[in-house]
Specification:
mainly alpha; 2 domains; 434 Repressor (Amino-terminal Domain); 99 residues
Length: 99
């Protein structure tokens, strides 16, 4: 999720989210709970007190940023890229079944 998207869910600005992320502002308890609900995680996970549960949400920030960039591509370029990825994934699955 982008800072802008989270800011929108929390009715604040992207700049404020950035300041929280950089540690320039501290999260108060009510905001921690609201962030946790927004990203479907526990407050302990948000605070780093508990490992993130494997719930299908991507946690690799670089990968997520790339996915966001792909989502912004023109439809034809996105389709070409997805076809290439599908082919790669099919080949990888076939390789695993042969092994």
């Amino acid at each position: 999720m982008t800072q802008g998207a989270l800011a929108s869910k929390l009715s604040t600005s992207q700049a404020v989210i950035s300041r929280y992320e950089k540690g320039k502002l501290r999260l108060h308890a009510a905001l921690i709970a609201e962030v946790a609900r927004s990203v479907q995680a526990s407050a302990d996970e948000i605070l780093g007190l508990k490992d993130l549960k494997p719930n299908g949400v991507l946690h690799d920030r670089r990968f997520v940023r790339r996915l966001e960039q792909i989502a912004k591509l023109p439809k034809r370029k996105k389709q070409a890229l997805l076809m290439m990825l599908d082919s790669f994934l099919r080949d990888e699955q076939a390789r695993k079944h042969r092994a």
